[in-house]
């Protein structure tokens, strides 16, 4: 349930629009070694260069686990509002406010940090900019006996599987880029101190218009890029996700309950010196059906020093970005509005 104060609904209302359907490239992670895997690696790199967005099949995440986690999350969001707010400390529950800088959306969500073992622990706005995964591990089992315990258990199991898949995506990506050592990128999201997160978003059905007639579209999650290396998303069969193409126009992503979608994040744009494009995206609520999405954010350790990889600069190549730590970048972005460009302060 999303409760908006007077005037807030008007803030997130959008004019009616019918963007074209995005042509999303597909990358098969299960392609066998040899020419087929090489072709998959080339397709992945091309997708990251063009729009920074692609679909993954052959991912190895059990369909039964994904469906069970999604169903458990949907069941939680159907709880009475008072019960959800009581469970907030166990699952990082929040609604309508996205960050602390005034962004609103027709959304309620769970926000969980990822422990070194791959489990998930609740994150609040107050700590989300500084909470390292290693520190979070200490509270990982403290809420297992709460009513939300079964949901937490499923989300933890799901997170382990998706983190493994994210690592496989980054290994294939490194191969496509010709990086020496296939783990150059994957290690950043698989170390014990990697700063990864899981977010579960629920976009309730569009509310009825006052006085009848067609209800407006609403901002579910405003346009933004993700600051991490990559984001791995799965959703139910309800549409709403849109991506900005290279020319700036919006395109609707058709739902696919069997595949995962991968976003290039700001940090990966930096690591590739701008070769890969951090994709701007948003969620528009214009359906009478709920949308549930689960997003794994693969981030590096807080102290990791980030800059374009030397192998991607070439002889005498100019670095477009100055070196910075993930903590520095994350804390800088924490103070901005969703739609702002977080990378510009770090450009050379």
UniProtKB/TrEMBL annotation:
<comment type="similarity">
    <text>Belongs to the iron/ascorbate-dependent oxidoreductase family.</text>
</comment>
<dbReference type="GO" id="GO:0046872">
    <property type="term" value="F:metal ion binding"/>
</dbReference>
<protein>
    <recommendedName>
        <fullName>Fe2OG dioxygenase domain-containing protein</fullName>
    </recommendedName>
</protein>
<dbReference type="InterPro" id="IPR005123">
    <property type="entry name" value="Oxoglu/Fe-dep_dioxygenase_dom"/>
</dbReference>
<dbReference type="Pfam" id="PF14226">
    <property type="entry name" value="DIOX_N"/>
</dbReference>
<feature type="domain" description="Fe2OG dioxygenase">
    <location>
        <begin position="193"/>
        <end position="300"/>
    </location>
</feature>
<dbReference type="InterPro" id="IPR027443">
    <property type="entry name" value="IPNS-like_sf"/>
</dbReference>
<dbReference type="InterPro" id="IPR026992">
    <property type="entry name" value="DIOX_N"/>
</dbReference>
<dbReference type="InterPro" id="IPR050231">
    <property type="entry name" value="Iron_ascorbate_oxido_reductase"/>
</dbReference>
<keyword id="KW-0560">Oxidoreductase</keyword>
<dbReference type="Pfam" id="PF03171">
    <property type="entry name" value="2OG-FeII_Oxy"/>
</dbReference>
<keyword id="KW-0479">Metal-binding</keyword>
<dbReference type="InterPro" id="IPR044861">
    <property type="entry name" value="IPNS-like_FE2OG_OXY"/>
</dbReference>
<keyword id="KW-0408">Iron</keyword>
<dbReference type="GO" id="GO:0016491">
    <property type="term" value="F:oxidoreductase activity"/>
</dbReference>
């Amino acid at each position: 349930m999303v409760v908006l104060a007077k005037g807030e609904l008007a803030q997130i209302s959008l004019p009616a629009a019918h963007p074209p359907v995005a042509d999303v490239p597909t990358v098969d992670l299960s392609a066998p070694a040899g020419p087929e895997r090489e072709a998959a690696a080339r397709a992945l790199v091309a997708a990251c260069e063009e729009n920074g967005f692609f679909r993954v099949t052959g991912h190895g995440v059990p369909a039964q686990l994904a469906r069970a986690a999604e169903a458990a999350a949907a069941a939680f969001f159907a709880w009475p509002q008072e019960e959800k707010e009581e469970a907030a400390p166990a699952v990082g529950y929040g609604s309508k406010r996205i960050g602390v800088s005034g962004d609103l959306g027709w959304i309620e969500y769970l926000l969980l940090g990822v422990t070194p073992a791959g489990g998930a622990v609740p994150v609040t706005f107050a700590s989300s900019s500084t909470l390292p995964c290693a520190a979070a591990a200490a509270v990982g089992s403290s809420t297992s006996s709460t009513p939300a315990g079964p949901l937490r258990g499923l989300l933890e199991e799901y997170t382990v599987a998706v983190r493994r898949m994210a690592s496989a995506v980054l290994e294939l990506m490194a191969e496509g880029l010709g990086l020496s050592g296939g783990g150059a990128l994957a290690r950043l999201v698989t170390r014990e101190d990697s700063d990864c997160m899981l977010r579960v978003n629920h976009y309730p059905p569009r509310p009825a218009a006052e006085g009848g007639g067609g209800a407006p579209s609403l901002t579910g999650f405003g346009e933004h890029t993700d600051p991490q290396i990559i984001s791995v998303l799965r959703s139910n069969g309800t549409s709403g996700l849109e991506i900005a193409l290279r020319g700036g126009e919006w395109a609707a992503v058709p739902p696919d309950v069997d595949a995962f979608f991968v976003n290039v994040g700001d940090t990966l744009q930096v690591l590739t010196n701008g070769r890969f494009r951090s994709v701007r995206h948003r969620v528009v609520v214009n359906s009478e059906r709920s949308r549930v999405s689960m997003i794994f954010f693969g981030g590096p350790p807080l102290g990791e020093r980030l800059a374009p990889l030397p192998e991607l600069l070439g002889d005498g190549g100019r670095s477009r970005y100055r070196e910075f730590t993930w903590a520095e970048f994350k804390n800088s972005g924490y103070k901005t509005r969703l739609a702002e460009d977080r990378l510009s302060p770090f450009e050379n």
